[in-house]
Design goal:
Length: about 240
């Protein structure tokens, strides 16, 4: 039997990808959805609408989902279009960081991300400080992440804006959101004022977010199943 809220509509589940649906890996291109997660998604899709909201290009995630009926919003909700300013910034970032041991620069259609997770411990601290100075001077939108910093054109959409747009467009629909990153924490914090919203953050020592519920990544689908079942009794 389909689980619906009191208005007769399926709840909407919105999920991040890296660190939420899939574990964080050393090389972002190696991230892949585990078979068990695919099975859970398939089962949930029979009872709910599911959307993956990610900084990844939508095509990368869609390929892993196959024919599974799950919506994907990539690049934080932005169109896959870079700018001359971002291309110049990428060239500078490569000169500054590409030779640093353990630093990886991930080029994206609308920008790029500098990952420093694989750098040695003490060097991570130095790279983080240097990235903060680099970001301060950058004429770009800067999105801080878990041991990475992403750069996109000024005026780009954020996850928080996309999520709030979904909530406002569906005021009578129960919306669940789970993420793990700094941008996810901000999105959840900003959305908590809406009575039809429930959010949680995958627990991590890398992201602090007061006032946001934390869950273990392994408990993701238990959390979703509990709240989907409860949604019938919530406004």
């Amino acid at each position: 039997m389909e689980r619906k809220d009191k208005h007769g509509k399926k709840p909407l589940v919105v999920l991040d990808f890296d660190g939420t649906l899939v574990p964080i890996v050393r090389n972002p291109s190696d991230a892949s959805i585990e078979p068990s997660a695919l099975s859970h998604l398939k089962a949930l899709s029979k009872h709910t609408q599911i959307v993956i909201l990610t900084g990844r290009p939508a095509a990368f995630v869609s390929r892993q989902l196959g024919v599974l009926c799950v919506g994907v919003i990539g690049l934080h909700g932005n169109r896959a279009k870079s700018s001359e300013g971002i291309r110049r910034l990428l060239a500078i970032a490569k000169k500054c960081f590409s030779q640093v041991n353990g630093v990886l620069i991930e080029k994206k259609p609308a920008g790029f991300a500098v990952h420093y997770r694989n750098a040695p411990g003490k060097k991570q601290v130095r790279v983080k400080k240097e990235l903060a100075l680099f970001a301060k001077r950058a004429n770009a939108m800067v999105i801080a992440g878990r041991k990475c910093v992403e750069f996109m054109p000024l005026g780009s959409t954020t996850k928080s804006e996309v999520l709030e747009g979904m909530i406002k467009a569906n005021p009578h629909l129960r919306i669940l959101y789970v993420g793990d990153d700094i941008s996810d924490a901000k999105a959840i914090h900003n959305a908590q004022k809406y009575s039809n919203f429930t959010g949680a953050l995958v627990r991590s020592s890398e992201v602090r977010a007061n006032g946001v519920e934390k869950i273990e990544r392994q408990a993701l689908f238990s959390f979703l199943q509990k709240h989907i079942g409860d949604s019938k009794n919530k406004p």
